[in-house]
Each structure stands twice: as C-alpha cells, then as structure tokens.
Specification:
434 Repressor (Amino-terminal Domain); mainly alpha
C-alpha cells in the first residue's frame, strides 16, 4: 500500500484533472497558494482536515475519497449525498430576504406614522445591510471572489446611503463622501491579497 501522502496526491490530481482545472485555479477556489496545491499533488505534504473538507465539498465527494487507494476508479461510491453549495446559497438568500422583510416592515409601519420623506430611507439602508450579510457568509464559507465583490458593494452602497440620508434629513450635499470610497476600495483589494498570501 502506498503511503497516505501519495494516495491523497493521486486522488487530488485525478479530481482536479477531471474538472480540467489548473493547480492555480484550484488554489484560488480554496483560497490557498498554487505552491501548496503542487506540494499536495507531489505527495510532499498533506492538506489539513479543514482543507480536505473544503475540497470534498468543492468536488462533490466524501472525505473517504482522498484516503482510499484508486478511488477515482470507483468514484460513484464516494459521491457526496448532497451539494453544500446549493444549501449555502439558499441560506444566504434567506438571510437577505430577512433584511428586506425588516426594511419593508419599517417602511410600511413608518409610512402610517411618519412623513414619507423619512421612511423610504429604510429601503435604501437595506441595500448595504444585504451586502453586509453576504460579506459575512462569503467570509465564513471562504468564497474569496464573492467576498471582494460584496465588500465593494457594501462600501459604495453605505456611502450612498449616508449621502442620501444627509441630503434628505439635513439638505446637505455631501458628494465628497464618495472620495472616501477610493481608498476604501483599494484597501478591500489589498486586504484580499493579504488574506490570500496568509495561506
């Protein structure tokens, strides 16, 4: 029997090639460096359990697949019973629906008791709140590209919401608030690179 490193290396390589991904593409999907993937596929190192779990979900197989000799020949025995991706997207969308339910409730309740010029801001603030929810889930589930996209959306929609709130409530045109978004956007991109390099 081959040693464990070689078994994992062979099975990981088979899975990656079946998807027609390069090592760099796989590395990006799991938020690791391509050097790490290369070491795993050469049998020089073993991915930790967290990474194996993440890759099992990504490829739709059970953890047993990685540690079983010649698992690729009988892959159907190791197929994951359900896709986690669909479940996760469903949870994210339910959380966003909850944000909008609260915002609409505030709007409808407020429109009966307050002036309409004030209460529609609840719907405006729901946009950055939704982006924040998506950022939290994307970080939690290690969707790196989604995290960057939703952090950017959060940045610009939060600035737009502050701008509109100041305009409606105080009649102040604070257009220069958007200048803050430029360094914030740069920080989001740089922080994403730092997170990637930490792996």
């Amino acid at each position: 029997m081959e040693n464990l490193e070689q078994i994992v290396a062979q099975n990981l390589t088979e899975l990656r090639k079946a998807q027609k991904w390069t090592q760099a593409e796989l590395a990006e999907k799991i938020n690791y460096s391509d050097k790490s993937v290369s070491k795993w596929e050469r049998g020089e190192a073993l991915p930790d359990l967290t990474v194996l779990t993440q890759m099992a979900e990504l490829f739709g197989v059970t953890l047993d697949f990685f540690v079983t000799e010649n698992a690729a020949a009988k892959r159907t025995d190791f197929e994951s019973p359900k896709s986690e991706l669909g479940f996760r997207i469903g949870v994210e969308l339910l959380a966003v629906c909850a944000v909008w339910l609260v915002a609409l409730s505030l709007f409808l309740f407020g429109s009966t008791t307050l002036h309409i010029k004030q209460v529609w801001m609840a719907l405006i603030w729901a946009v950055p709140a939704s982006a924040l929810v998506m950022v939290i889930f994307s970080i939690r589930w290690k969707f790196r590209v989604c995290t960057i996209v939703f952090e950017s959306i959060l940045c610009w929609t939060a600035l737009a919401s502050v701008f509109l709130q100041a305009l409606v409530r105080y009649h102040a045109n604070l257009w220069h608030l958007f200048l803050i978004g430029i360094p914030l956007q740069g920080a989001i991109i740089l922080w994403a690179q730092v997170r990637k390099q930490k792996r």
